[in-house]
Amino acid sequence: MGLEELLLDLERVMKNKRVSSIVESRVKEFEENKREGDNLKWFEELILCILTANSSAKIGLKCVEALKKNNLILNGSERELEEILKKNGHRYYQIRAKYIVEARKYGTKIKDIIMEIKGVKRKREWLVKNIRGIGMKEASHFLRNVGFFEVAIIDRHILKILIGYNLIDPTLKKKTLTVRRYLKIENLLRQIGRKVGLKPGILDLYLWYMSTGKILK
User: Fold this and answer.
1) Number of structural domains the chain divides into
2) Are 57 and 7 in the same domain?
3) 137 tagged catalytic
4) I need a labelling partner for 78 at 20 to 30 A (CA). Which of 15, 18, 66, 145 fits?
5) CATH number, domain with residue 87
């Protein structure tokens, strides 16, 4: 197994009309978020990424929908947030509720701030520096979901794929992804993406499908 095998399997998945249509739909959704989403919509995407960290995309999405349904994204107390997150199965409901409350200082201006920052890498650096609960992966996830596809979302599913094709050291799965390690793997994904004509944030959707059989957000 190696790069050539991954490229062959990846191209096979890309030719699957059902999968490619879902990916195209997600990409259009993210582009629409960038074009038409307001500050609140972007804040909701940020909260999703905070909740997905060290949890799962499924739990994160479930919790965000519950918070929106109860009008708690911007207005709920920390205790109310904890109750909703716990009820919807979030393992770290207390600290995530705290992160959401702290992030609210940017809730009505997050899009304005991000759009003013030049360069996607600098946008990501700002997110990591200023939003508690947001690291390289979460910042990249957020940026992809609001229409910036130049960064890669490196989670355990992506690591599993890269390890399975002998493209990275298997021990990385058990190590903390430092910024240096993250950028090195992101560069590899960027090279893979160029070979199949995909930006890293879109390549992620196909690789995630190859690892999980699903395409979420």
Assistant:
1) 2
2) no
3) yes
4) 145
5) 1.10.340.30
